[in-house]
Write a structure and sequence with these properties.
The chain has 181 residues and is an alpha/beta fold. It is built from 5 helices and 9 strands. Helix 3 (112-123) links the parallel strand 5 and strand 6. Bound molecules: zinc ion.
């Protein structure tokens, strides 16, 4: 890794908690309609990965294009995507799940994933952290390293009853109807 790239990656790591632009600020109207109609009218926008914007910021936090209702945290470098990861936080259980962190090959081993995970822990303090999928063998050492000293340790854990793989954190009226609240 050359010196310039090392410097760029260090700067990007330092910006992980502070230089984050968020998009969109949710869709309050369609979320309200969805809740008021108890799900009969659901026009909440569902984006695909290709529809997500590349924001002019070192880090961005957008809707997920992979799992509806989740968020996507991403780092940008040299006008391209450097790192991307999906996550969801359950306010009832105070558990966060992260899923499928991926760093573009030329930026790998630059600490971007660890910096992103740390930034999310700072934003959501007092939570336990897990992974939503099993660990492939090539990533086991990574999870052991980043999970050291973290509550939950990023061990694989099933989603709780309040969170759906597609749908994110479910609304209170639906959880009550199901008897899960
Ligand atoms: Zn929960």
């Amino acid at each position: 890794m050359n010196v310039d790239l090392e410097r760029e990656l260090r700067r990007l790591r330092e910006q992980a908690a502070t230089e984050v632009v968020r998009w969109p600020s949710r869709e309050p109207i369609w979320t309200a309609v969805y809740n008021l109609t108890r799900g009969r009218i659901d026009r909440r926008p569902r984006y695909t990965t290709g529809q997500l914007p590349a924001l002019d910021s070192p880090w961005q936090d957008t809707d997920s294009g992979r799992y509806f209702g989740w968020r996507c945290r991403r780092a940008n470098l040299n006008r391209g995507q450097a790192f991307v990861m999906e996550y969801i936080v359950c306010p009832h259980c105070r558990i966060g799940w992260v899923d499928k962190p991926y760093t573009i090959e030329r930026y790998q081993r630059g600490g971007l994933a660890a910096a992103a995970l740390r930034a999310l822990r700072e934003e959501h303090s007092g939570m336990a952290w897990h992974t939503g999928s099993g660990h492939v063998s090539s990533s086991k050492a990574f999870w052991v390293r980043v999970g050291d000293g973290v509550e939950g340790g990023y061990l694989p854990r099933k989603l709780c009853v309040h969170v759906a793989r597609h749908g994110g954190v479910l609304p209170d009226w639906l959880l009550k109807r199901r008897g899960d609240l």
